[in-house]
Amino acid sequence: MLTESFSGVRGRYGGDITGDLAMRYAHALGRETLARTRKTGATFVVGGDTRPSSRSLMDIFIRVLRGYGDVIDVGVQSTPAVELAVREFGADGGAIVTASHNEPADNGWKLLGETGAVLGPAAMARVIRTAHAKPAAPAGKEGTVSRKGAGLADAYIRFVLDTIGKGHADAIRKRGFSVVADPNGGTAGLYLATLFGRLGITGIYRNIEPGVFARRVEPDGESIGYLGAVARKGKADLAVGFDCDADRAEFVLPSGRMVSGQEVLALLVDEALADAETGAVVVANAVTSNLVTEIAERHGARVEHVDVGEINVVERMDELQSPVGGEGSSSGGIFPPSRCRDGILTFAMVLRLLSRTGKGIEAILDSYPRYYSGRTKVSCDPEAVPQVRQLLSERYESQGRRVERYGDGTGGLKAWIGEKSFIFFRASKTEAGQFRIVSDADDEQEAERILAEGRSLLMSLLRKL
């Protein structure tokens, strides 16, 4: 099913995602960019992931956007690398052809502004309306197409190394880590061997060939759990798996323990705040575990929550000059000047933490307070979302619960069940017709109970509509 939101456009290639739809969105992006910049000819960056359908969709964006200005074709690259290219080349915007963690038969695109970040909700809403209106001829100045993908991979690796810092890179080299890495044919595989060489890492690679998908694209316990055994056999320190556009990284330990996305963000916050001034602000989405809050408070920092959606985190981080942010549900940190989750940078920052402390991930996590999360999904008519959200709010408020609402009528709803426990509801922006429910508590049975009660409540409300 086609999904269109500020998180991007996704659907089945050849079904919901067609060349005609790509053409319409390219025209809409061109018009939006010219209107924002007030230029007669803008500059755009276009790149994409390793899916079989990505190149043809990239070519459509390039052909159409050329009617609005100059286009820089960076070819197959990760989402963080394409966003870096927008900043590196001083472009006005761009497009990344990717369906991120969706399966290979799907595709789509993320549309970018001049900072490299995805377009904000208001701009993307205008683009969506324009894309579905009557198509119009380009209104800009026809430009040129240049290809600059060859040097971008090196520029991206330099960016990662610069972000972690030379001293920390030296410390990582001294540790001599051994790492199992599984990019599953995705774009992370374009950079890993070079980065590992620069950091003195011994790499044990699985599914490294670009475009060859040997497992489900989304890295989770089901798809990359096997890496624990590979790490044990190879005497590796840890294992890491990536999604197709490399904005997410998930970790598996030799013991077989899967590190949750919430724990990954806690590790990143712990490391980023080690060098930050007291009073720093971490920005995270509202479904992020209280674990992250507790780790931030250890450093004299606080956490500010925003609605789910990477751009919501990015924009608030920019306003508050936050040193780190992210979405605990998505296993990827955001480190300025980057404007997106970055799986490879996340991986490098975790190694930085390990080299600085001299500890392993398991030992560090065992020193953290323990939190448990539960999650499930319920089918829901998208048209009913605002009403359901209001009914949920009323029900929890009638129980004396503190309720926090995020975004508009389709944004997230968070109800606090106790001082350290909450339940969160939100209509998915990437899976049409799905209502996501997440619980978080410092007791595993409590997290399960809260989730079950929340699901039961939502189902009962839907039956009454």
Question: How would you briefly describe this protein structure?
Answer:
The protein is built from 16 helices and 21 strands. By secondary structure, the chain is an alpha/beta fold.
Give a written overview of the molecule.
With 465 residues, this protein is α/β, with parallel strands linked by helices. The chain folds into three domains: 3-150, Alpha-D-Glucose-1,6-Bisphosphate, subunit A, domain 3 (Alpha-D-Glucose-1,6-Bisphosphate, Chain A, domain 3, 3-Layer(aba) Sandwich); 155-366, Alpha-D-Glucose-1,6-Bisphosphate, Chain A, domain 3 (3-Layer(aba) Sandwich); 372-464, 2-Layer Sandwich (TATA-Binding Protein), CATH 3.30.310. The chain is built from 16 helices and 21 strands. The strands form four sheets. A seven-stranded mixed beta sheet has the order 1-2-6-5-3-4-7, sandwiched between helices. The protein has a five-stranded mixed beta sheet with strand order 9-8-10-11-12, with helices on both faces. The protein has a five-stranded antiparallel beta sheet with strand order 17-21-20-19-18, with helices on one face. The longest helix is centred in the C-terminal third of the chain and has 21 residues, at 444-464. The protein is globular. The model has no long low-confidence stretch (mean pLDDT 95).
Number of helices: 16
Oligomer: single chain
Specify the CATH homologous superfamily of the largest domain.
Alpha-D-Glucose-1,6-Bisphosphate, subunit A, domain 3
Integer count of domains: 3
What is the distance, rounded to the nearest whole angstrom, between the alpha carbons of the first and last residues? Answer: 23 Å
The percentage of residues in β strands lies in 15-25%
CATH architecture label name of the largest domain: 3-Layer(aba) Sandwich
